[in-house]
Design goal:
With 270 residues, the chain is α+β, with helices and mostly antiparallel strands. The chain is built from 10 helices and 6 strands. Helix content is 47%, strand content 19%. Strands 1, 2, 3, 4, 5 and 6 form a 6-stranded antiparallel β-sheet that branches. The N and C termini lie far apart (71 Å).
Length: 270
Protein backbone atom coordinates (compact mmCIF):
# COMPACT_ATOMS: atom_id res chain seq x y z
CA UNK A 1 0.00 0.00 0.00
CA UNK A 2 1.19 3.53 -0.76
CA UNK A 3 3.01 4.84 2.32
CA UNK A 4 1.79 8.38 1.69
CA UNK A 5 -1.84 7.29 2.08
CA UNK A 6 -2.21 8.24 5.79
CA UNK A 7 -0.88 11.74 5.09
CA UNK A 8 -2.53 12.71 1.85
CA UNK A 9 -6.02 11.22 1.69
CA UNK A 10 -7.37 13.97 3.93
CA UNK A 11 -6.46 16.45 1.18
CA UNK A 12 -9.11 15.04 -1.17
CA UNK A 13 -10.47 18.06 -3.02
CA UNK A 14 -14.14 17.03 -3.02
CA UNK A 15 -13.89 16.15 0.66
CA UNK A 16 -12.50 19.59 1.53
CA UNK A 17 -15.13 21.33 -0.62
CA UNK A 18 -17.86 19.35 1.15
CA UNK A 19 -16.62 20.39 4.60
CA UNK A 20 -16.45 24.04 3.54
CA UNK A 21 -20.00 23.88 2.12
CA UNK A 22 -21.22 22.21 5.32
CA UNK A 23 -19.86 25.06 7.43
CA UNK A 24 -21.11 27.78 5.08
CA UNK A 25 -24.57 26.27 4.92
CA UNK A 26 -24.95 25.73 8.67
CA UNK A 27 -23.62 29.15 9.67
CA UNK A 28 -24.64 31.38 6.75
CA UNK A 29 -26.73 30.06 3.86
CA UNK A 30 -29.53 28.55 5.98
CA UNK A 31 -30.28 31.79 7.74
CA UNK A 32 -29.79 34.26 4.90
CA UNK A 33 -31.54 32.26 2.19
CA UNK A 34 -33.62 29.63 4.07
CA UNK A 35 -35.05 27.65 1.18
CA UNK A 36 -35.42 24.04 0.05
CA UNK A 37 -31.85 23.89 -1.26
CA UNK A 38 -30.23 25.12 1.95
CA UNK A 39 -32.47 22.75 3.89
CA UNK A 40 -31.01 19.75 2.05
CA UNK A 41 -27.46 20.90 1.32
CA UNK A 42 -26.02 20.00 4.74
CA UNK A 43 -27.38 16.46 4.45
CA UNK A 44 -25.83 15.95 1.02
CA UNK A 45 -22.39 17.38 1.76
CA UNK A 46 -22.38 15.90 5.27
CA UNK A 47 -23.08 12.41 3.93
CA UNK A 48 -20.36 12.88 1.34
CA UNK A 49 -17.71 14.08 3.78
CA UNK A 50 -18.45 12.22 7.04
CA UNK A 51 -17.89 8.57 5.96
CA UNK A 52 -14.87 9.66 3.89
CA UNK A 53 -13.39 11.26 7.01
CA UNK A 54 -14.12 8.29 9.29
CA UNK A 55 -12.74 5.83 6.73
CA UNK A 56 -9.38 7.58 7.02
CA UNK A 57 -9.23 6.34 10.60
CA UNK A 58 -10.24 2.77 9.71
CA UNK A 59 -8.79 2.27 6.27
CA UNK A 60 -9.59 -1.46 6.10
CA UNK A 61 -13.28 -0.91 6.92
CA UNK A 62 -14.32 1.46 4.12
CA UNK A 63 -17.44 -0.41 2.94
CA UNK A 64 -18.81 -1.18 6.46
CA UNK A 65 -18.33 2.50 7.40
CA UNK A 66 -20.39 3.66 4.43
CA UNK A 67 -23.13 1.10 5.11
CA UNK A 68 -23.25 2.03 8.80
CA UNK A 69 -23.37 5.73 7.93
CA UNK A 70 -26.48 5.15 5.82
CA UNK A 71 -28.16 3.12 8.58
CA UNK A 72 -27.36 5.74 11.24
CA UNK A 73 -28.65 8.52 8.99
CA UNK A 74 -31.96 6.69 8.55
CA UNK A 75 -32.22 6.27 12.33
CA UNK A 76 -31.17 9.86 13.09
CA UNK A 77 -33.65 11.42 10.65
CA UNK A 78 -36.58 9.33 11.86
CA UNK A 79 -38.75 9.69 14.96
CA UNK A 80 -37.03 6.58 16.37
CA UNK A 81 -34.09 8.72 17.49
CA UNK A 82 -36.19 11.18 19.53
CA UNK A 83 -35.73 9.29 22.81
CA UNK A 84 -31.94 9.40 22.34
CA UNK A 85 -32.04 13.14 21.61
CA UNK A 86 -34.28 13.79 24.63
CA UNK A 87 -31.88 11.85 26.86
CA UNK A 88 -28.79 13.70 25.58
CA UNK A 89 -30.50 17.07 25.93
CA UNK A 90 -31.55 16.05 29.44
CA UNK A 91 -27.93 15.45 30.50
CA UNK A 92 -26.77 18.76 29.04
CA UNK A 93 -25.66 17.73 25.55
CA UNK A 94 -27.55 20.00 23.20
CA UNK A 95 -28.24 18.42 19.82
CA UNK A 96 -31.07 18.88 17.39
CA UNK A 97 -32.53 17.60 14.14
CA UNK A 98 -35.79 17.92 12.22
CA UNK A 99 -37.77 14.80 11.30
CA UNK A 100 -38.27 15.14 7.55
CA UNK A 101 -38.39 11.92 5.59
CA UNK A 102 -37.67 13.77 2.35
CA UNK A 103 -34.12 14.16 3.74
CA UNK A 104 -33.56 10.50 2.86
CA UNK A 105 -32.94 11.61 -0.71
CA UNK A 106 -29.47 12.70 0.47
CA UNK A 107 -28.53 9.01 0.80
CA UNK A 108 -28.08 9.04 -2.97
CA UNK A 109 -24.75 10.80 -2.46
CA UNK A 110 -23.23 7.90 -0.50
CA UNK A 111 -22.32 5.76 -3.57
CA UNK A 112 -20.57 8.75 -5.14
CA UNK A 113 -18.64 9.43 -1.94
CA UNK A 114 -17.72 5.74 -1.68
CA UNK A 115 -16.48 5.64 -5.27
CA UNK A 116 -14.47 8.81 -4.70
CA UNK A 117 -12.92 7.29 -1.56
CA UNK A 118 -11.96 4.12 -3.39
CA UNK A 119 -10.46 6.07 -6.27
CA UNK A 120 -8.35 8.01 -3.79
CA UNK A 121 -6.97 4.89 -2.11
CA UNK A 122 -3.55 5.45 -3.67
CA UNK A 123 -3.36 8.93 -2.14
CA UNK A 124 -3.75 12.48 -3.38
CA UNK A 125 -1.63 15.59 -3.64
CA UNK A 126 -0.87 17.43 -0.42
CA UNK A 127 -1.89 21.09 -0.08
CA UNK A 128 1.15 22.73 1.49
CA UNK A 129 -0.60 25.68 3.14
CA UNK A 130 -3.17 23.44 4.91
CA UNK A 131 -1.67 21.53 7.84
CA UNK A 132 -3.28 18.16 8.50
CA UNK A 133 -4.21 18.95 12.16
CA UNK A 134 -6.14 22.04 10.99
CA UNK A 135 -8.17 19.99 8.51
CA UNK A 136 -8.94 17.40 11.19
CA UNK A 137 -10.00 20.08 13.68
CA UNK A 138 -12.18 22.02 11.22
CA UNK A 139 -13.78 18.83 9.87
CA UNK A 140 -14.56 17.56 13.37
CA UNK A 141 -16.08 20.91 14.30
CA UNK A 142 -18.21 20.92 11.13
CA UNK A 143 -19.64 17.46 11.86
CA UNK A 144 -20.41 18.40 15.48
CA UNK A 145 -21.76 21.86 14.68
CA UNK A 146 -24.29 20.55 12.17
CA UNK A 147 -26.07 18.69 15.01
CA UNK A 148 -25.86 21.46 17.62
CA UNK A 149 -29.14 22.55 19.07
CA UNK A 150 -30.85 25.38 17.28
CA UNK A 151 -34.39 25.80 16.08
CA UNK A 152 -36.06 27.73 13.30
CA UNK A 153 -39.45 29.22 14.13
CA UNK A 154 -41.49 29.90 11.01
CA UNK A 155 -43.31 33.24 11.29
CA UNK A 156 -44.39 34.36 7.78
CA UNK A 157 -46.13 37.52 8.96
CA UNK A 158 -47.08 40.19 6.42
CA UNK A 159 -46.64 43.82 7.43
CA UNK A 160 -47.92 47.11 6.04
CA UNK A 161 -45.70 49.29 8.21
CA UNK A 162 -43.83 52.00 6.31
CA UNK A 163 -41.94 55.11 7.27
CA UNK A 164 -40.69 58.02 5.14
CA UNK A 165 -37.23 59.32 6.00
CA UNK A 166 -35.64 62.60 5.00
CA UNK A 167 -32.13 61.61 3.98
CA UNK A 168 -29.81 62.46 1.12
CA UNK A 169 -29.50 59.55 -1.29
CA UNK A 170 -25.72 59.81 -1.39
CA UNK A 171 -25.33 60.19 2.39
CA UNK A 172 -22.85 57.99 4.21
CA UNK A 173 -25.54 56.80 6.64
CA UNK A 174 -27.74 55.47 3.84
CA UNK A 175 -24.80 53.82 2.05
CA UNK A 176 -23.68 52.13 5.28
CA UNK A 177 -27.23 50.94 5.96
CA UNK A 178 -27.61 49.45 2.49
CA UNK A 179 -24.21 47.78 2.71
CA UNK A 180 -25.29 46.06 5.93
CA UNK A 181 -28.33 44.39 4.37
CA UNK A 182 -28.82 41.96 1.49
CA UNK A 183 -30.46 43.13 -1.74
CA UNK A 184 -32.52 40.91 -4.02
CA UNK A 185 -30.98 41.30 -7.49
CA UNK A 186 -31.60 44.82 -8.85
CA UNK A 187 -34.94 45.34 -7.11
CA UNK A 188 -35.81 47.67 -4.24
CA UNK A 189 -36.34 44.66 -1.97
CA UNK A 190 -33.86 43.88 0.79
CA UNK A 191 -33.38 41.21 3.42
CA UNK A 192 -31.85 41.70 6.85
CA UNK A 193 -32.02 40.48 10.45
CA UNK A 194 -33.35 41.83 13.70
CA UNK A 195 -31.59 40.52 16.79
CA UNK A 196 -32.62 39.66 20.33
CA UNK A 197 -29.29 38.93 22.05
CA UNK A 198 -30.85 38.15 25.44
CA UNK A 199 -32.96 35.45 23.74
CA UNK A 200 -30.14 34.09 21.53
CA UNK A 201 -32.39 34.79 18.57
CA UNK A 202 -32.26 36.49 15.19
CA UNK A 203 -35.30 37.33 13.07
CA UNK A 204 -35.12 37.54 9.29
CA UNK A 205 -37.24 40.23 7.65
CA UNK A 206 -37.70 41.62 4.15
CA UNK A 207 -38.18 45.30 3.39
CA UNK A 208 -38.48 47.75 0.53
CA UNK A 209 -36.57 51.01 0.13
CA UNK A 210 -38.05 53.37 -2.46
CA UNK A 211 -37.17 56.91 -3.49
CA UNK A 212 -40.11 59.29 -2.97
CA UNK A 213 -38.46 62.63 -3.52
CA UNK A 214 -35.23 64.47 -3.99
CA UNK A 215 -33.92 63.80 -0.51
CA UNK A 216 -36.28 61.23 0.97
CA UNK A 217 -36.93 57.51 0.87
CA UNK A 218 -39.78 55.33 2.01
CA UNK A 219 -38.81 52.28 4.08
CA UNK A 220 -41.50 49.61 4.11
CA UNK A 221 -41.43 46.47 6.21
CA UNK A 222 -42.67 43.73 3.89
CA UNK A 223 -42.65 40.53 5.97
CA UNK A 224 -41.26 38.80 9.04
CA UNK A 225 -40.04 35.48 7.68
CA UNK A 226 -38.61 33.32 10.46
CA UNK A 227 -36.56 33.34 13.64
CA UNK A 228 -33.53 31.24 14.45
CA UNK A 229 -33.08 30.52 18.15
CA UNK A 230 -29.60 29.33 19.09
CA UNK A 231 -28.49 27.12 21.94
CA UNK A 232 -27.09 28.93 24.94
CA UNK A 233 -23.80 27.03 24.75
CA UNK A 234 -21.80 24.49 22.76
CA UNK A 235 -23.24 21.52 24.65
CA UNK A 236 -26.49 23.02 25.92
CA UNK A 237 -29.89 22.86 24.32
CA UNK A 238 -32.20 25.60 23.14
CA UNK A 239 -33.82 27.41 26.04
CA UNK A 240 -37.54 26.61 25.83
CA UNK A 241 -38.37 29.99 27.37
CA UNK A 242 -36.60 31.71 24.49
CA UNK A 243 -38.58 29.65 21.97
CA UNK A 244 -41.85 30.37 23.73
CA UNK A 245 -41.03 34.07 23.85
CA UNK A 246 -40.45 34.26 20.09
CA UNK A 247 -43.64 32.32 19.42
CA UNK A 248 -45.61 34.68 21.67
CA UNK A 249 -44.61 37.83 19.76
CA UNK A 250 -47.28 39.54 17.67
CA UNK A 251 -46.88 41.44 14.40
CA UNK A 252 -46.80 44.77 16.23
CA UNK A 253 -43.95 43.51 18.44
CA UNK A 254 -41.82 42.75 15.39
CA UNK A 255 -42.74 46.09 13.87
CA UNK A 256 -41.58 47.84 17.05
CA UNK A 257 -38.28 45.95 16.87
CA UNK A 258 -37.96 47.05 13.25
CA UNK A 259 -38.44 50.67 14.28
CA UNK A 260 -35.93 50.43 17.12
CA UNK A 261 -33.22 48.58 15.21
CA UNK A 262 -33.60 49.84 11.63
CA UNK A 263 -35.69 53.00 11.34
CA UNK A 264 -34.07 54.71 14.31
CA UNK A 265 -30.65 53.83 12.90
CA UNK A 266 -31.45 55.83 9.79
CA UNK A 267 -33.11 58.66 11.71
CA UNK A 268 -30.42 59.20 14.32
CA UNK A 269 -28.30 61.58 12.25
CA UNK A 270 -31.09 63.22 10.27
Amino acid sequence: MNQSQPKNLIYGKLFLISVILLLLNDFFFKYYFHNYLTGKLSDFVGLFAFPYFISLLFKSKIKPIYILTGILFLFWKSSLSQSVIDYLNGVGIGINRVVDYSDFIALLVLPFSYRYRKQNSIGTEKIKFLPKPLIIAVSSFAFIATTLAGEIVELNLKSNYEHPIQIQKDSLDLKMFKNAIFQWSDTDKYRTNLVLPDKNASIQISLFMEEIGKDSINVKLDSIKFSYVQSSGFFSGVNKKNLDYIKSLKLEDFEQLFIEQKINELNKNN
